[in-house]
Amino acid sequence: MKSLMRIKQFGIIVLATAALSACSSNNTQITSRDDSPYLTQAQAMARSARVSNVSYDLDFKLDGSDSFANQTTIRFTLSDNSSPLTLDLSKANIQRLEINGHVLYPNYNGLYLSLNPKLLLNGDNLVKVSFTRKHSTNGEGLHRFVDPVDGKVYLYSHFEPAAAQQMFAVFDQPDIKATYKLTVRAPADWQVISATREDNIVNDGDFRVWHFPVSPKLSPYNFSLHAGPYHMWQDDKSGPYPMRLFARQSVASQVYPQDWFRYTAAGLKFFENYFGVKYPFKKYDQVLVPDFLYGAMENAGAITFAEGRFLYKAKMTKDQQQMLAGVILHEMAHQWFGDLVTMKWWNGLWLNESFASFMGTLATANATEFDYAWRSFYAGGKQGAYDKDSRVTTHPIEVPVPTTGNAFDNIDAITYSKGASVLKQLRHLLGEEVFRKGVSEYLHTYAWQNATLEDFIGSLAKAANRDLSQWTQDWLYTAGVNTLEANFQCSNGAISSFTLTQTAAVTGQPVLREQKVQIALLRKHRQQLALTKTVAVTYQGARTQVPTLIGEQCPDLVYPNYDDWGFVKVKLDDKSFATARNQLASVTDPLLRSMLWQSLWDSVMAGNLPLNHYLDTVFVNLPKEHDYTLIGQILRTLHTSQHWLAQMAPLHADYRDQVARALAQMSLRLTMETAGNSDLQRRWFDAYIDFASDAESLAHLNELLDGKAKLDGIILDQDTRWHIVRQLNRYDYPGSKALLKQEAAKDNSDTGIKAAIAATVIRPEAEIKREWLGRIQHQSGEAFPKLRIAMANLYPAEQQLLNSATAEERLDTLAQMDQSKGPVFMRSYAPTLIPTECNHSSVNRLQQAVKDNPTLSVITMRTLKELLQEEQRCVVVSEKITR
User: What's residue 239's pLDDT?
Assistant: First the structure.
């Protein structure tokens, strides 16, 4: 929508004749951009070809209200002034525009300014834009949050992929790097945080003016500004760089700064040694912020973290500490790979994230106490990648990104975890030291520049002295996960033949890839499965002979991807599969045990192993398991099983109820048995709350909540109390609605408000469902971060009748929602509110929805197709259950 902005009088406004004629003719000259809010890659390339040597002077006035004021001064060199130039600025109320000394009426459409070439110079230019703008409330731009506990206002910025234009006038694309000089006027009790540390603060009545020195050259999405009365912790002694940590005052007691500083210092030391490049910035700030859209963001020198994931009202568990370390180190890797060296366009975003995921895990395993980090990666992120890469919607790692609106279309487990797995495999293929040298060479060569995939692969190829073009084509430009199987025969107790068989992906492109893996042979020995032999093999093509194993003692189990070097699904031979099912508890290697458990679960999802047979194996073996990470892996499969069984009712209602009771009873028993191990006990108690659905278990939870019952070692902190309240309301336990009101009255924090929303919308009441669905679809009454909570809790699996009541309506309005709400909203809406019911009618309904909605956005169509595939899988699993 076009909007005319009134120019306010800032002294004498000069409208030169040339400027007037320029404004009148400007509309006829603009042909490269329409009124789309998104920048195309072609437009970006054309602009960066003309614009260089950019610097920004940014002057902000912040007062805590719902708007802010800014003056952006931009200096840049223009190589060609024969055509218009656009400057991105979103939804601003422009007060003054000056181009090379000419003050003029802005040619502005609410998305970008069109700078007339008659006012621009071949060479150096200066543009000044003064404006006011509303703060955003959806987690992008300069986001504003009012703490419900004390009314204090907090601001933070988030720009990726292209939201810097919501905060200042900018060439908002990654390959126009610039320096930034920042001045901020803010209330006197506020902190102001940015890429550089302030060098002067001047008092100005009830305000202070913060002056920041010029930053290094950064892409716009790597710059940041955070402001508010943040509580600050500081550590200048643990490393060579000053470290600070910030959080809202009302949640400061839930932060464990010693852990933050410990992992940060360890990571900085590790990465400087590994990369051979000093940390690029002079200080290391980390800011916990509310309502954050993602887990964290790698703003140069001022990283932001979603506080909901890193605030704890009880002592952190090992799992929570490992997650904290992993995310800190992921974002830290970006300071080199992403901030120092940056992609040219958003098709390179996968490499940024894959590399950070790989390096973050490597650093966690080598620089912290979590030396089992790769096991956690295998059980978590890598399984997500295998799942995504097996979907009908799979995509290559490297894909075109036509516009900034498509930047996050393919940001998923393939981008993060498959990419990280592929880099891990490449490190094994090339050798660890060769890989490290290639990375170091890349960072040295392209420091403070933009680079491409070809630049990165070229650096590795140079270090390895080999051609990686075929590897790149097979792994990065083709989709799908292949399957590896060991085929062997034995004669007189010894292996007589051994072959690795590779089959192409069921989905994606049918390509056979080169990988280096380890083959493990195991034999039963004294009630254990003992490892007898490992051998490293590089395989490619359909069949690879392994003559070095001929003559080895005949194994009881063969695992052809031992220690998880490769990105490949393993199909166990019949003998190995039977051994795995019967001998799980006797496998001493926890990673191998994890991989064998995964093989059983993969067989369930493929429809080869009945779900009830898998659950039988769980009930026998899981109580014997003491590895914290592996228990978490198996529990995730049990949550999925419970979800499926709830959807399958009434077909398997009796079995569902039987399994639900058994899961709750097992979890409660193990909660009591692990009282001496706080981490394990909390894991089992959380599982008990999640699995509780029968009357006896819910009654017990209610008694724990009101203090009539106790469990040794368990203290109900506020988060756990909300967990129980939500579960009681989910199943409409008598009195649960009153409990919800009581708990909400005691906890008016942001997390408490969101927990109350979750417990409210999950209640099995049609009126509540209808009211909140209306709020979500019309975005009325609640800010988006709270609507996301409602979406995730509105239709739990067992509430099929309530789900069905609005299912047709939600599908009928899906295209309209997709068109009007945009990608940020739909990334939450589509996965949670497209209806599924695990039956043939639901499959048919989703198939029809795919046909009826050909114009859905990439993200929403992909979600719809994946949910259809999941429905088909659930139906197969249901039909395989034997009783």
Answer: 82
Q: How far apart (Å, rounded) are the C-alpha atoms in residues 783 and 153?
A: 15
Question: 504 and 474 in contact (C-beta within 8 Å)?
Answer: no
* CA-based radius of gyration for the chain: 29
Strand partners, 127: 74, 99
Q: How, if at all, do strands 450-451 and 342-343 pair?
A: parallel
d(CA 578, CA 587): 14
Q: Which top CATH class is 1-229?
A: mainly beta
Helix, strand or coil for residue 808? Answer: helix
- Report helix, strand and coil shares of the chain as percent, to nearest 5: 45, 20, 30
Q: Is 232 left (phi over 0), alpha (psi -120 to 50) or beta?
A: beta
Check residue 18 and give its pLDDT: 35
What sign has the CA pseudo-torsion 199, 204, 208, 212?
negative
Residue 96: how many CA atoms within 13 Å on its side-chain side? 19
User: Token digits for 571?
Assistant: 């199909």
Which of 664-671's residues contact partners 24+ apart within 8 Å by CB, and which partners? Answer: 664/688, 664/691, 664/692, 664/693, 664/694, 664/697, 665/697, 666/619, 666/622, 666/623, 667/691, 668/697, 668/700, 669/623, 670/623, 671/711, 671/714
Give the residue numbers annotated as catalytic, written as ranges: 331
Q: Sort strands 569-571 and 483-491 into parallel, antiparallel or unpaired.
A: parallel
Separation between Cα atoms, residue 474 and residue 509, nearest integer Å:
9
String of DSSP letters for 311-369: --SSPPPHHHHHHHHHHHHHHHHHHHBTTTBEESSGGGHHHHHHHHHHHHHHHHHHHSS
User: Exposure of 470 by Cβ count < 10 A (0-12 exposed, 13-18 middle, 19+ buried)?
Assistant: exposed
Greater model confidence, 91 or 509: 91
- Strands 207-211 and 178-187 come out as antiparallel
630 contacts 624 by C-beta, under 8 angstroms: no
The CATH architecture that domain 337-476 belongs to is Orthogonal Bundle (1.10)
769-825 residue pLDDT tens: 999 999 999 987 778 999 999 999 999 999 999 999 999 999 999 999 999 998 889
